DNA-directed DNA polymerase (Methylopila turkensis), 343 residues
Amino acid sequence: MVAIKTSGVDAFLAKPQAGVFAVLIYGPDSGLVSERCERLAARALEGSDDPFALVRLEGDDLASDPGRLADEARTIALFGGKRVIRVRVGGRAMVLAAEGLLSGPEPESLVILEAGDLKKNNPLRALCEKSPRAAALPCFPDEAGARDRLIDEETREAGLSISPDARALLAAHLGPDRLAARGEVRKLCLYAMDKGRIDADDVEAVVADAGDVGMDVAIDAAFAGRAADMTAALRALRAGGMPPSVVAGGALRHALTLHRLRGDVDAARSARAVMEANGFLFHFRRKAAVERALGAWTNERLGEAVTKLADAVAAGRKAGAIGEAVAERALLAIAIEAGRLMR
């Protein structure tokens, strides 16, 4: 089985390929990984009322007892029917367990391996990508199209319509984690249930909450060159449980948006005119700060900021406390650069 491309994951989940009985679902978006594991398991167990049909195992335990995975997968269900073995891949290598499963007779069970971000040369990922009896499904943070599909799914389920301005504002405020984003949209649908339609005011009232505004304060301070304000906001966010790498991720999305809008400024439009046309992308409290940043930052400098922040976000995901320090330094560097540009 070749590796499934990101664009083909939903199609595979809707109709898994015959002969595939082990599915590795991995990626940096843990919410999306979990959601897709749930979706695949629910599809496999559809119509089953056996409470023991779903078995959960820890990958670290299987690393110590590699034969257990194959034994569990080939165990016949007590009441007949399909079983699903869901394994949370941990820090210890469980390649031997997966090899034992894939090299033996085809089991009655579907095995779902739930993992974090795995590099291309990761042995478990490589094994599942090469085996005709396995599939590897990547889960990366939602892009605009995926966020739109999520919004469509939830609003359709709730029987609600959504205005174009509300949709754009909602998509701009949703974070990269799929489960968290879905929770925000469901909360919004519940709020607007009696209206039948979601408007921009509803999004501002429900989704743009204090946590989002708090992160926006740090980001706007960084892009305005107010290093002291940015540092203070970052300290407050960290005390509330939000690490610098998350703020760096928000700053990266903001820099990408500014980079796109700056193209309109370079095409002989004023920053104010561009903001008037795209103001729905930002909370009303932020518009003045964003307009000033849009006028000061050049396309070249924004491109450099995007690269710096992308590297910081990657470091934050991989290097723990060191990565958080890298993210904080990147945000400070953005603030220092902005201070020069704002003079």
Summary: Residues 209-213 have pLDDT under 50 and may be disordered. The CA atoms of residues 168 and 221 lie 24 Å apart. The domain at 144-206 is CATH 1.10.8.60 (Helicase, Ruva Protein; domain 3).
